[in-house]
């Protein structure tokens, strides 16, 4: 991969599942070799907002009901598990912890996992647990954007690199 100077800038925040960390709701990962290399070079730090918020791995699948991450932060929507448990508080707490890490490191960009109720940048599931996607952001992606951090999906990042 050609380095266009992009990866030598400020440290990035990345979804921990991209690092090969088994932190997804199903106990699996979404390892991305190029992102793993950023971490190895000290250019990125992995975080899992859901774990930072106190949720276990594995855990029940969760989706945002009634909006997207911005609506959750504004108290207009909730994050619930497939069996109806309200886990909004854990998602919000994890988003703020991820923001704290980003601010501590002077992060200006985050590469996050699309479709996640925490990390989704452009697409999230619609809250019906039927696999239906809609435009919107996850809770952490929305909070980071509100604080001036550029959020991109893995695919967007690969296209820019």
Automatic annotation (TrEMBL):
Pfam families: 2-thiour_desulf (PF04463). It comes from the Bacteria. InterPro entries: 2-thiour_desulf. PANTHER family: HYPOTHETICAL CYTOSOLIC PROTEIN, INNER MEMBRANE PROTEIN. This is Uncharacterized conserved protein YbbK, DUF523 family. It comes from Laceyella tengchongensis.
